[in-house]
Amino acid sequence: MRNKMNNRLELLLFGGFDLYLDQKPIKAFSYNTMRALMAYLVVEPSRDYSREFLAELLWERQEMATARANLRRTLSHLRQAIEIPSGKTLFVASKHSLRFIPDLSTDLYEFVAPLPSCTQKTAGGCSDCLEQMERMAALYRGELLYGLSLPESSTFDEWLQMQRENMHKRALMLLEHISNCHEQLGQYSRALPFARRFSELEPWDETGHQRLMRLYALNGQVGAANRQYNTCCQLLKTELGVLPGNVTRALAQQIRQKAPSPVPPLAAEVSVTLPSPLNAERRKVTVLYCELTLEDAADDDPDELLDRLQAPQSRCIEIIRHHSGHVLQTHGGGLLVYFGYPQAAEDAPRRAVQAALAIGREMAGCVGVRSGIHTGLIITNTDTAIPDIAGKTSQIAIQLRDSIAHHGTVISQSTHAIVTGYFTCLPMKDVKLPRAMQSITSFVVLGESGAQTRLDAAKQLTPLVGREGEINTLMSMWQQSRCGQYHTVLVQGEAGIGKSRLVLAFRNQLQDAAPTVRELRCSGQFSSSAFHPLLVMLEEEMKLRLASAEEKSRKLIDYFECLYPSQAKEGIPLLSRLLSLPLPERYTTSTLSGQPLKEQTNTLFLELLRGPSSRQPLLLIVEDLHWADPSTLALLGQYFHEVGERPAFTLLTARAGFVSPWHDSDVTPLPLPPLSSKAIEDMITAIDARLPMEIRQRIVERTDGIPLYAEELARFAVAEKADAIPGTLHDLLAARIDRLGSAKCCAQLAATIGREFSLTLLERMQQEISSSDAIESLFEAGIITRLDSTTAQFSHVLIQEAAYQSQTRANRQLAHRRIAEILLNDFSEIGTTQPEVIAQHLYNAGDLVAAVEQWINAGQRSLLNAAHAESLAHFHAGQRALAKLPADHSHDQLEMKLNLLLGASLTHAKGYGSEEAKTAYAGALESSGIEVEETSLFSALQGLWISEHAQGRNLIAVEIAQQLLHLAQQSADPIQLQAAHESMGTSTGTFGDLQKARYHFEQALALYRPEHHEEMMRRYNDNFRIKSGAHLSMVLMQQGFPDQALAEAQATLALAQTGNNPHLLCYGLNGVALIRRWRHEAAESEPFAAECLAVARKFALPVWLLLGSAAFAWARAAQNDGVEMDGLIAQVHTGETIPTAIRAQMLRQIGEGLVFLQRFDEALKVLDESIELANRLHERYVESEYQRLKGECLLQQQPADLAAAEACFHRSLAISRNQGALFFELCATISLSQLWQQRGCLHDALPLLENICGRFTEGFETPDYRMAKQLLHAAQRA
Fold it and tell me: Is the pTM value of this prediction over 0.70?
């Protein structure tokens, strides 16, 4: 045996993947997923990972069963490669999870190890730490896991890319820190290797080139410094098509003048901890890549290029920042910009396109501009220097730029879908993406369409619904304003509630009145820019937006001199300054400042708000007042009090939460509530009436009455999937979530719990990551609302979905796992009452086995509570999760359990003859294999027996019943014995063997103990005492014991009524109704049949709906009411899915009911069908009654030909005697005696009547026995 002390494992992950045992390489890593699994466990050690999580991580495109098998094989290969030769245990595996024990050394752990805290206050003290930092930096020999990739697993590749970026940044920070420390110490030659290594790792980082240039110069190597500058210029131009920035150029000039820049201050201490994966998030952004080019500049003179590009690039950055873009890269003429980052913005894609067009207009004639724009998802963390870790979305924007030959802006399909209507676009040829097979559709942007709002941009407006009351209120106030009663109305509601749509509809109603309209639109982007809404209004009125500076000045002069001549002298200079226009020659700049200038500005804007003098009424509209700047708000307050004598009406809109700064008496509130479900449905129909009902209903549920949500989801559902969030809504929702700041993480956790969640659970989750009052922030922001003292919910489904989707998949899985753990450990009542909640969290966490087990618990609980629809949903969810597991022994056991329970649930939910139930039970037998518990095998067979019997396959059913009895006798399990006897009794009774049937039913009753009930319900969701009692009463009735039969039926019903199971209650009710029917006591049978039908309807029990309807229709027909019978006949004729045995029972009652109603022709057809069906099914136990009833029909149908009827009665007598069915023999004797009485030879019936009456020991008060006695007396007198 090897000496374990010498078994040193060393794993090198930087620059590749190399594993050594005692300094000798281990070469058994033959494929990438083997390396990937090992690497993932090493980077994320000492945690339990579910096998499902790891399988999905590495084989996400494969079925879970295949993926799990691959995981098992890969783990086996790892053990063979590492554990066996080293004698170490690195992988601790259970049936469902895997943990890595880091009993090895690795360069990664050394590289990220914490540094000792520096206690030195001078640069000279750095030498104490430099040696350790240099050793750490030397470990970074190349990219983490260089060359490793799993193209079939995007999740693993995203994770790996994030880890690579983290390690790469850490290496750069170490190298920079070491270089700066040596530089501070004056050790320039020692600093140079680390500066060179920095530039090797990050060749396009100009700060690295600057550092090298400076160090070369300080070290007396001026030529090397100049060469480094040339290298920098050539590299940036060749690789990126850009040139060095101003700082680099200035440093090169200083070096040429032999005056290098001063030594930088010592860098802050390098962070040495691995970034937490919880910092990563999914974010949808719009990326703009803009390239500036000078076609006539000398190719070999970067200084000339930079000199000429400096001013244009600075102006471009100003334009981008004006549109709220986040500029990341500014090499020479290249700009990489992110919109909606780091803070989401409601109109980020539109701002990106506006910025690109503005840059194009600004640079026209002097600089070439090519812009590519793409909207997509990125994985990002807290480092704003690297927004797009994976780089895919940014790469698409860059690739789109390359599709333009010279000048212009190209956008992707995803961006176009959001901004369409705001811009005029033409489709281009598809753009082929790098390193991918697919292409994307692109569009060239020709210019802005002039649309300023979503309503302007829409091709067709959805009809306004559900706002008739609000329109009427506004029209009433408008009419009052026209008569001199000034009104200001504040329409208030949350985003998307339809404020702007209401305003537009109101304006359209005023077209005949032709008012003067002044419209201000406030913007969150300019909420700190004084008078911005008024300046935009003026720009639109004067059409200044696309004009040159000279044209703008001319239009400004024309506007004032034409409409406001008295204000021109002061107004034109004032607005020229506010609009950043050159002052026209004949006007002079105002000398006012401070308060006088403010008063002059306010006076001018008040005049502009009122509009030109006119007798027409004035309508002032101010939209999105919640974004108004303070100056605009103050001006509006002044306007309200100085509106003058002109008829005027002011209509304001604001989001919920806006607090009016004016007196309540000045403003009339008009809140907009959510629309009703009916109104939302009308909207959806107007958009596309062809949408399937289930999609419409889903949209109604997700929109919570918000019309914008409904409209966008409906349009999106036409071409995309209905459950996704349209891009047109995504930014609106994401911006609202981003405004939460530090509480955003709390919102994400709440969203992971669900739309409705326990505040206690959220507080517990929140405590693990923060102690802030984040939950209260969610209430204040209106993100969540309180349902009661312990429960809250998201104000809208879509907000919850957006918060949930903003997390990476790994983070979601971690959160789901932690939620499940807390629920199981600290909220035991949830595990008891809502196991399906835990199941869903476990499933989303990737722990499929545990999820299936919890869904089984949930289904069993619902089954016991007769919630069959719910139980089916839980079992089907379990099956879907099970399908992702490999086919091993554990899988088979779960599959059998699921199928058994699913079969029981389907039996109750869809009826005894359900083919789906039969399939489930058959599946349970198939999954049992060789090793199977007797109880499971018995349950599967018992379920199959139910299905076969209900479908009338009685020969098969009796064979299964015999197997059940054999198994039960072997096990001596009293519950199994009761089930087996009940099955055998039913099958033998069906064949007409009443004596055997009675024996088995009595055996079942003798075995029953009250304490068996709970276990029966747990195993089979049934009670065989109740079923056997109901069947025994039928046998007793047939054998001529009507009083015992009624007593047993009533006792069985009483037992059923003590429980809480509607299925068993129907068994008891139907049993009493049937015995009363056979006793021909219609009035007494009816209430039990009616109650059975009511219970079946309440709990949606299909079999009992059928049998209850038949029993009730028979009772009404026996009392000469055929309405219910007609309905029953129609039901049987149209009910193709009625189980065969159930159909046979219904036909019997229809036939007898039609005889009561004297509809003999119909009855005869039904009875012939029943006889044919009974023969086919080998169903004999009521065969004598078929013959008797057929004889009654023939007797009435052919009164002159009594022979046919008499033959039927004789057959009925023979069958009933053969079966020992004394009561049916009594009925046949009565019918035959009445026929002989009609023929005039009643005396011949005397022996029959004496015999039958003499054999009865009870039931003397039943109608049939009394009739027989009457006939006997008449025969004796004849």
Answer: no
